[in-house]
Amino acid sequence: MLDKKDKLVMLYIFEMCEKQGTKLISMQQIIDFLCVKKFAVSTSGVDEIMISLSKEGLIDYVKSESKNGVVFCVELKPKGKLFKKDLQKQKKYASWVLLRTVLLTIFSFLIGLLLRTLF
Question: How much is the pTM?
Fold first, then answer.
C-alpha cells in the first residue's frame, strides 16, 4: 500500500516516463518536486520511496552516482503504466461509495418519518 509521498513520487515518475518508458531522473528533481507539494524529504527518504515503488511492482530502477548527485534510471513496469488509471478508478469508487451512503441515509430518514406519522 502506497502512502501519500509514494503516490506523489510515482505520479511524478509516471509523468516523466509516460512517453518514453525509461527516463533518467535525479534525486534532486524528486526532492524539489516534493518540496513544491509541501513535503520535506531527505535523500534516505527518497531511497526508501524508490525501494517501496519497486517492491510494489510499479518501477524498475538503477541508482548511480554522478558528479551532479544521485541519478535514477527509471523504467515503468506494466503495473506502473496503469498507475494513473488506477488512481482514477479509486477516486470514482470512493465517490460512488460516498454518494450511496448519503442516499441511503436520506432514504432511511424518510422511512423513519413515514413510520413515525403512521404509528
Answer: 0.79
